[in-house]
Write a structure and sequence with these properties.
By secondary structure, the protein is an alpha+beta fold. Among the domains are: 126 residues, Sandwich (Immunoglobulin-like); 106 residues, Immunoglobulin-like, CATH 2.60.40. 38% of the residues lie in helices and 18% in strands. The protein has eight helices and twelve strands. Strand 6 and strand 7 form a beta hairpin. Helix 6 packs across helix 8. The longest helix is centred in the first third of the chain and has 34 residues. Bound molecules: heme C and copper (II) ion (CU).
């Protein structure tokens, strides 16, 4: 290739970069309103990580700009000129020492605070932490609040089991024990905590305290971040941070047994549920309280979403879900997608061929009444 051709190509690329750079900047800036942003920390843990991130970011920025400017200057200053001949240099000890020391110093500046944060965030959790076990399953999250259930007949504390929506109290430390039932999952709430893997047969944990001012109506979004099968991307959860009063109100409702349905349709749904769904789901305080293969549905009507944060919680989505969940979550049952034939019991199957449309409607009505 001739020199001219090379020059033309490089000029073309320079022009393209000039056009692309503002576009890239635009994408970067619009990401600021992303609900899964990591740069608006809402807990001590994510704020500590953000501190390290800022150091790394500004250092990289400094190196980037310095190298770009230097490259530009060298290119212009030492460009080929008539009558000027290049000098050949072989080795320059002082320069070589300098450019070894500078990167070492930069890495050290990043390393020390990183270590500090790792040590701080993996320290022992505060004594007054609320202890929650989060279990990853294909493809949903079970949350068990230690000792927060209603006391049993002998007055001993029991655990409170729920799924896919986590409720926390601002200012109150939470110690999350991370487990998995089937394959490796990972727990991440970008603004609050993570990413820590959930490994079968091995317990990891993390702890954090949501800031006092992190209380908000809107949910914080959580997500499984370890590829765990066909519906990995459909394995999400929501986190609600309340003030003390709000949290206690939620707890009071959540720990109590299921309410009786009031509508005729809902009552029919309740009967059908016990026959059709109790082999996998629990609704506390009813005959359907033996199985825990699927999410606990005692107060499913009070959740904002169903199917692990995938669908808004309303009758039509419930009907779609019960009729054919694999339509919504690929791979959810072995009939539609071969995932795990050895343990087919765990998977929610399509009920559209087993239960009439009217009956599915009644079950959906019942579930929405389980506030
Ligand atoms: C063979 C076990 C099994 C049976 C039977 C079963 N389910 Fe499920 N169900 C599951 C599993 C597992 C999930 C979690 C799936 C996921 O989100 O990936 C689930 C999820 C759900 C959800 C979403 C809950 C949430 O919090 O997101 C609803 C609602 C539900 N099932 C309703 C029903 C109804 C109604 C029936 C009876 C018609 C039924 N299920 C029968 C296993 C079962
Ligand atoms: Cu997962």
């Amino acid at each position: 290739m001739t020199e001219e051709a090379l020059l033309r190509i490089s000029q073309r690329w320079a022009r393209r970069l000039l056009i692309l750079a503002p576009a890239a900047l635009f994408i970067l800036l619009t990401a600021c309103s992303d609900p899964q942003t990591t740069i608006e920390p809402a807990s001590d843990m994510t704020e500590a990580i953000q501190g390290v991130y800022e150091i790394v970011f500004w250092l990289s920025m400094f190196v980037f700009i310095a190298i770009m400017l230097l490259t530009l200057w060298l290119a212009v200053h030492y460009r080929e000129q008539p009558g000027r001949e290049a000098i050949q240099i072989h080795g320059h000890q002082r320069l070589e020492i300098l450019w070894t020391i500078i990167p070492v110093a930069i890495v050290l500046i990043m390393l020390v605070p990183t270590w500090q944060v790792i040590a701080d965030t993996t320290d022992t959790p505060p004594e007054d932490s609320m202890v929650i076990t989060a279990t990853g399953k294909q493809w949903w999250f079970e949350f068990t609040y230690e000792g927060l259930g209603l006391p049993d007949d002998e007055g001993n504390p029991t655990d409170l089991v729920t799924a896919n929506e986590l409720h926390l109290q601002a200012g109150k430390p939470v110690h999350v024990l991370l487990r998995a039932d089937d394959v490796i999952h990972s727990f991440w709430i970008p603004q609050l905590a993570g990413k820590v893997d959930m490994v079968p047969g091995h317990e990891n944990d993390l702890w954090f305290t949501p800031f006092e001012d992190s209380v908000r109506e809107e949910a914080y979004l959580g997500q499984c971040v370890e590829f765990c099968g066909a519906s990995h991307a459909n394995m999400r959860f929501r986190v609600f941070v309340h003030d003390e009063e709000g949290f206690n109100a939620w707890l009071e409702n959540e720990r109590s047994d299921a309410v009786e349905p009031t509508s005729e349709l809902g009552k029919l749904g309740a009967t059908l549920f016990v026959v059709r769904c109790a082999e996998c789901h629990t609704v506390r305080g009813t005959a359907a309280s033996i199985a825990d293969f699927g999410p606990d549905l005692t107060h499913v009507g009070s959740r904002t979403t169903i199917a692990a944060g995938i669908l808004d919680n309303n009758i039509s989505n419930l009907v779609d879900w019960i009729s054919n969940p694999a339509e919504i979550k690929p791979g959810i049952n072995p009939e539609n997608d071969v995932i795990d034939k050895e343990r087919p019991l765990r998977f929610m199957r399509a009920f559209e061929d087993e239960i009439s449309a009217e009956d599915i409607q009644a079950i959906a009505q019942y579930l929405t009444e389980l506030k």
